[in-house]
Amino acid sequence: MGGSESLPQVSLTTDRVVLVTGGNTGIGYETAKWIAMMGARVIIACRSEERAQRAIEKMQKEFREEKTKGTPGLCSSETLAVEFMALDLASLKSVESFINNFKEKENKLHLLICNAGIALHEQEYTEDGYEIMFQVNYLGHFLLISKLLPVMLGSGDDCRLVLVSSEAHRAASFDLEKAQGKHHTKENFKRLLYYGNSKLYQIMQMYSLNRRLQNTNVTVNCIHPGIVETEISRSFTELQLWRVFFQLSKAVGKTKTPFEGAKTLITAAINPKFKDTRDAYFIDMKITQANSLARDQQKQEALWKYSIDCLKGFLKKEDMEYLEKD
Asked: Which of 159, 162, 302, 317 pairs with 151 at a CA distance of 20 to 30 A?
């Protein structure tokens, strides 16, 4: 399960509102749990209420166990302040509904962790007509961020946005005319390429956002969690090559547990040392650098415009105040 000695020792309060997409499983679960155990109020955003409630019950049990063990850095409360809100990133209407529900009950948001994602999915298109990895990993989060930025900007000091990207961005290409992969048949659809593209887009978005937020209380950073054994692999269990890759990685000690993968995410999210850090790409709790394609400003702005065009039915005039280039 891991231990808090390898995490930043930070005391948080329930006044600090944290939103974790995909917080019911894997890296998101560990991140939501440990940040809640440090005292913050955490909202888990995912599709299944049943699975979220099971995850919350498990968090409460593990919190009691950590307290019994005398784990340092835990909050003094008897129970964790964790709750569920419904969000399906494969549906832009669901994202919009989530945003409306969130704004009805919350007027602050200090930490937004865009963790939910799918990997190496076969060719499939959402109800909105977008390639599913593009929408779940990137575009759905883009809409979520766009609509919640005004809340974060009004939430006081040290608000952070952390995107869970991947080293797979190094296997990506950039061609917005082919961004949805519709020129491929199902048989020759390149799953790794389109997964890598979705992760590349997240990093490019980080740079674009920071240019617009450079004089504000909100910072944006990305992380690569490592090769983590989580449910994300359910998308490609039939791909023999990738099964072998995971087995070999595990055999040579290169895979991580969800807790080990979450440590970098938690570090970027709450370590006071990174309060004013922007445009960082974290691996193993250290700042590294994304590839040159991700850092290409002209391509970043082309992607930004493309993304806003994709969301034109959902972004209103008042949203654009925060999205337009300085």
From this structure: 302
